[in-house]
Automatic annotation (TrEMBL):
Subcellular location: Cytoplasm
Organism in which the protein naturally occurs: Gemmata obscuriglobus
Binding-site residues for NAD(+), renumbered to this chain: G185, A186, G187, V188, I189, G190, S191, E192, G273
Active-site positions on this chain: H447
Protein name: Soluble pyridine nucleotide transhydrogenase
Domain of life according to the entry: Bacteria
Domain FAD/NAD(P)-binding: 7-329
GO molecular-function term, one example from the UniProt record: dihydrolipoyl dehydrogenase (NADH) activity
InterPro entries: Class-I_Pyr_Nuc-Dis_Oxidored, FAD/NAD-bd_sf, FAD/NAD-binding_dom, FAD/NAD-linked_Rdtase_dimer_sf, Pyr_nuc-diS_OxRdtase, Pyr_nucl-diS_OxRdtase_dimer
SUPFAM superfamilies named in the record: FAD/NAD(P)-binding domain, FAD/NAD-linked reductases, dimerisation (C-terminal) domain
C-alpha cells in the first residue's frame, strides 16, 4: 500500500531551481514537499558542479601561490607535490557544509523533504519510489514544479568505466592527481577545469572542434582569456575532434584526433555538453512530453503545456546556470500562487565564468548591438590603472562598458580579472535601473577598490566620444540619462 499526502506544491528536484521554488512556496504559507532522488539536497550546484568546481579552483589558486606570484618576488607555492587529498579536501568540506545549510533552511520553513525518485502517476499525482524500498509514497499536488536538472553528455567512443576517463560528475572521485590531462570540450566546464588543473601544475591540453574560446563572450574578453590561459600553461588543441580513445589498464591513454595526430595523457576529462534529465518522470501521465535534448518546453512564466505544472532550471535548457535556475524557481512559484511578488524573471541575468582569470558579463555585447543597429560607445579601464588592481597584482584584467551613444545609458558591462563576477554587479544594478554615465560618474566608490574601474571606464567612453567629435568638452556636454 502506498502512503498518500496532499500538498499545495510539490517540487521535483532539490537543486537551486527546486530549492528556491520550495522555499518561495513555503514563504507564501503553502504546504510544500520537495522530492529528491539523491541522498542529499543541493543538486548539481552543490554536489557535482558549481561549488565543487569553484572550490577546486580556489584550492588551486591557494596551493599554487598563483595570486602572489608577481607580488612579493618570492614563490609561495607549496614545495611538495600536491596530492588529490590536498586538492579535494576543501571541496568536500564546503560541499557537506552547504548541503546541511540548504537542508536546514528547508526544515526551518517546514518544507517536507522526501528522498526517492519521483514520477507522474497523473497530472496532480507524483509517485515516489525509494531506492531498494518496496513502499511507495503518493503526493497529490495543486501545483507541481519540475526542477530535475541535467547530466553530462557521454559521447560514444570513450570508455567511461575506465578509472582515468571521466565526465565532470565523476571527476570529483579522482583517486590520484593526474600527471597530464586532456580536457575534451572547451565550453565553460572544460575551460574552468582546464584552468584549475593547469594552476595545480598538471600538464593540461584543451581540445575542441571549434577554433575560438567561448565564442558567446565579447571578442576582446575571449582573446584576453585565451592569452591568460596560455600563460597559465593550458595547451589549446583547436579544430580537432577525438576520433578514438584507447585506455589501457596500465600506461597512458591514447587519443586519436581528427587530423590524424595522437595525444597521450594520463587522464581524460570529457566536457562536451549537458542534457536535461526528465527521463524518469513518466511525463506522459501528466500530459507532457520532452523535446530536443530532453528539454521541457515552458512559457514566459515557466508554465508547461499543462498549466499547473511548471518547469525551471537546466531541464528547460539555456541559460542553465545555478543563479538563473534559482531565479526561475522563484518566478514560477510566485506566478503559480498569483502573489504580489509575482513578476517576470529578472531582466538582467549576469554570467560568471570561473576560469583563471575570472570573467563576468551582463547586458548586451558589441555584436548584439551591431546586429540591432544600436549606436554605442565603448569605455575601457584596466585593473592596472586603479590602485586596487595594482595592489592585487592583476596586470591583465579590464572592465569594458558599452553605452548607448545618444544618451550614455549603460547597455553592457564585461569584466575579466580577479573577482570579475563580483565587480560586474555594479553594472548589473546600473542596468537594472536603466542608469548610465551620470550615475557612474556621480557615485563615490571606496578607495582603493575595483569599483573605481567603472568611473575610469566611463571617463574613457566620454573621452573617445570627445575625440571622435574633436570636442574636448565632451566630458561636460555629453548627453546623460537620469539615473
Ligand atoms: C562543473 C559545473 C560547474 C558549474 N558552474 C556553475 C557556476 O559557476 N555558476 C552557475 O551559475 N552555474 C554553474 N553550473 C550550472 C549549475 O550547476 C546548474 O545550472 C544548476 O545546478 C541547475 O539547477 P537545477 O535546479 O535546474 O538542477 P540540478 O542542480 O541538476 O538539480 C536537480 C536535482 O533533481 C534531482 N532529480 C532528478 N530527477 C529526479 C527525479 N525523477 N526525482 C527526484 N529527484 C530528481 C537530482 O538528483 C538533482 O539533485 C555548473 C555546472 C557544472 C556541471
Ligand atoms: N560558470 C558557469 O556559469 C558555468 C560553469 C560550468 C558549467 N556551466 C553550465 O554547464 C553547461 C554545460 O557546459 P559544457 O562546457 O559541458 O558544455 P558546452 O556545450 O558549453 O561546451 C561543450 C564544448 O565541447 C565541444 N565539443 C563537443 N563534443 C566534442 C568532441 N567530440 N571533440 C571536441 N570538442 C567537442 C563543443 O564544441 C563545445 O565547445 C553550460 O552550458 C553552462 O550552462 C556554467
Amino acid at each position: 500500500m502506498s502512503e498518500r499526502a496532499n500538498f499545495d506544491l510539490v517540487v521535483i528536484g532539490a537543486g537551486p531551481g527546486g530549492e528556491t521554488a520550495a522555499l518561495t512556496g513555503a514563504r507564501l504559507g503553502k504546504r510544500v514537499a520537495v522530492v529528491e532522488k539523491a541522498p542529499f539536497v543541493g543538486g548539481a550546484a552543490v554536489n557535482t558542479g558549481t561549488l565543487p568546481s569553484k572550490t577546486l579552483r580556489e584550492t588551486a589558486l591557494a596551493l599554487s601561490g598563483y595570486r602572489s606570484r608577481d607580488l612579493h618576488g618570492v614563490d609561495l607555492s607549496l614545495r611538495r607535490n600536491i596530492t588529490v587529498d590536498d586538492a579535494l579536501r576543501h571541496e568536500r568540506t564546503i560541499k557537506a557544509a552547504h548541503r546541511d545549510q540548504i537542508r536546514g533552511l528547508l526544515d526551518r520553513y517546514g518544507v517536507t523533504v522526501v528522498h526517492g525518485t519521483a514520477r507522474f502517476a497523473g497530472p496532480n499525482v507524483i509517485q515516489v519510489a525509494g531506492d531498494g524500498d518496496a513502499s511507495e509514497r503518493e503526493l497529490v499536488a495543486d501545483k507541481v514544479v519540475i526542477a530535475t536538472g541535467s547530466v553530462p553528455v557521454r559521447p560514444p567512443g570513450f570508455p567511461f568505466e575506465h578509472t582515468r576517463v571521466h565526465d565532470s560528475d565523476e571527476l570529483l572521485e579522482l583517486h590520484e592527481m593526474p600527471r597530464s590531462l586532456a580536457v575534451v570540450g572547451a565550453g565553460v566546464i572544460g575551460s574552468e577545469y582546464a584552468c584549475a588543473f593547469a594552476a595545480l601544475g598538471v600538464e593540461t591540453y584543451l581540445i575542441d572542434g571549434r577554433n575560438e574560446l567561448l565564442p558567446f563572450l565579447d571578442a576582446d574578453l575571449s582573446a584576453a582569456l585565451e592569452a591568460s590561459m596560455r600563460r597559465l600553461g593550458v595547451r589549446f588543441v583547436w579544430g580537432e575532434r577525438v576520433t578514438s580513445c584507447d585506455a589501457p589498464d596500465v600506461g597512458d591513454v591514447r587519443l586519436e584526433l581528427s587530423s590524424g595526430q595522437t595525444l597521450t595523457v594520463d587522464h581524460v576529462l570529457i566536457c562536451s555538453g549537458r542534457v536535461s534529465r526528465a527521463g524518469d518522470l513518466n511525463l506522459e501521465a501528466a500530459g507532457l512530453r520532452a523535446a530536443h535534448k530532453g528539454r521541457i518546453g515552458v512559457n514566459e512564466y515557466f508554465q508547461t503545456e499543462v498549466p499547473h505544472v511548471y518547469a525551471v532550471g537546466d531541464v528547460i535548457g539555456f541559460p542553465a546556470l545555478a543563479s538563473t535556475s534559482a531565479e526561475q524557481g522563484r518566478a514560477a512559484v510566485a506566478h503559480a500562487f498569483g502573489t504580489p511578488l509575482a513578476g517576470p524573471v529578472a531582466p538582467v541575468l549576469p554570467t560568471g565564468i570561473y576560469t583563471i582569470p575570472e570573467i563576468s558579463a551582463a547586458g548586451e555585447g558589441e555584436e548584439e548591438l551591431r546586429a540591432k543597429g544600436v549606436e554605442y560607445v565603448t569605455g575601457r579601464a584596466g585593473y592596472a590603472e586603479v590602485a586596487r588592481g595594482k595592489i592585487i597584482g592583476d596586470e591583465y584584467g579590464f572592465l569594458k562598458l558599452l553605452f548607448r551613444r545618444s544618451d550614455l545609458k549603460l547597455l553592457g558591462a564585461h569584466v575579466i580579472g580577479e573577482l570579475a563576477s563580483e565587480v560586474v554587479h555594479i553594472g548589473v544594478m546600473a542596468l537594472m535601473t536603466g542608469a548610465g554615465a551620470d550615475l557612474l560618474l556621480g557615485t563615490c566608490f571606496n578607495h582603493p577598490t575595483l569599483g573605481e574601474l567603472y568611473k575610469l571606464a566611463t571617463h574613457d567612453a566620454l573621452l573617445r566620444m570627445g575625440r571622435e567629435r574633436n570636442d574636448p568638452t565632451a566630458l561636460t556636454t555629453a548627453p546623460r540619462v537620469s539615473g
